[in-house]
Specification:
It is built from 13 helices and no strands. The C terminus is likely disordered. The protein has one domain. The termini are far apart. Helix content is 67%, strand content 0%. By secondary structure, it is mainly α. This is Phosphatidic acid phosphatase type 2/haloperoxidase domain-containing protein.
């Protein structure tokens, strides 16, 4: 059997599974979401946590991109003698600015919240997790063995550009589809005091058009799919790649489930974002195999 075909089997299985769930959800979207309609749903800790933690999750691959780009430039572009003359306070200032900027991004959900006290408590918990992850990313890519990889040019600019294209491509597509389909959220259509009627994803209507009708597809899941971009940094699918893939997949599934029980999305909303993410990932992986940016790669120093 063709080896290329075998390599694509995992992606084909995942896509087939997601499309199957999407088709089933097309007929049972409303019934499934109604299972989670209950008093106090808006205070569900897991739902609120996902609501807050999920929005700025793009800062994780962003931190990876910034750290890799920084070290790529420092150890591949700058000569050792010049690098040694860089004052430490300049490096500290740079990373302090990055850290503050990323922290402000994690505050977006709280700044737009109508329930600041409850959300603020969960935001603190969420921010501590992000700080831990940012610290780990910085530590990991500054280890001695990783620095040697930068010197040996095992990380390159093309990989970083593909990561950016993948992340921006997924979310931009999700954003455009939200406007096109203009689907009201479950909490606006399924509650006893619902102000809008249930609308299937395929039943596009602009009669009561509103930018708040942004249920299909899920933005949170679309953003979570950006975590897959980190996998592009691996040269081989070793146990580390599979471990990280499993962790990322679990995070995406948890965020999807959190959006459903929080009555912010139907099952078709979250599965469509996953389908888009997998398709973009397959396309980006194919793009990565072509050395279209090879002429931009720097000459090794020292």
């Amino acid at each position: 059997m063709n080896k290329t075909f075998l390599k694509h089997i995992p992606v084909m299985v995942i896509l087939t599974s997601l499309i199957t769930i999407f088709l089933v959800g097309t007929f049972f979207d409303k019934q499934f979401s109604e299972l989670f309609v209950r008093d106090g749903y808006e205070k569900n800790f897991f739902g609120v946590f996902v609501d807050i933690f999920g929005v700025p999750i793009f800062t994780i691959p962003l931190m990876v991109i910034v750290t890799v780009l920084y070290n790529w430039f420092l150890f591949s572009k700058i000569k050792p003698k010049t690098r040694d003359r860089i004052q430490r306070w300049k490096l500290i200032t740079f990373w302090l600015i990055v850290f503050i900027a990323l922290t402000l991004m994690t505050s977006i959900p709280v700044m737009r919240s109508h329930n600041p006290n409850y959300y603020l408590l969960i935001w603190v918990f969420s921010t501590l997790i992000y700080w831990t992850l940012f610290g780990y990313i910085f530590w990991f890519f500054n280890k001695k063995d990783q620095r040697q990889k930068f010197i040996n040019q095992e990380y390159n600019l093309q990989t970083l550009l593909v990561m950016v294209i993948f992340c921006v491509g997924v979310y931009f597509t999700v954003f455009i589809l939200k406007i096109i389909f203009n689907r009201p959220r479950p909490d606006a259509t399924l509650l006893p005091n619902a102000v809008k009627e249930y609308q299937a994803w395929w039943n596009i209507s602009y009669q009561n058009f509103s930018l708040k009708n942004e249920s299909f597809p899920s933005g949170h899941v679309g953003i979570a799919m950006s975590l897959l971009s980190i996998l592009f940094l691996f040269k081989n699918k070793n146990w580390k790649w599979w471990t990280l893939t499993t962790i990322i997949s679990l995070v995406i599934l948890l965020i999807a489930f959190g959006r459903i029980i929080f009555l912010k999305h139907f099952i078709t909303d979250v599965t469509m974002s996953m389908i888009l993410g997998v398709l973009f990932y397959a396309g980006a992986a194919r793009m990565l195999k072509k050395n279209w940016l090879k002429k931009w790669e720097v000459t090794k120093h020292g």
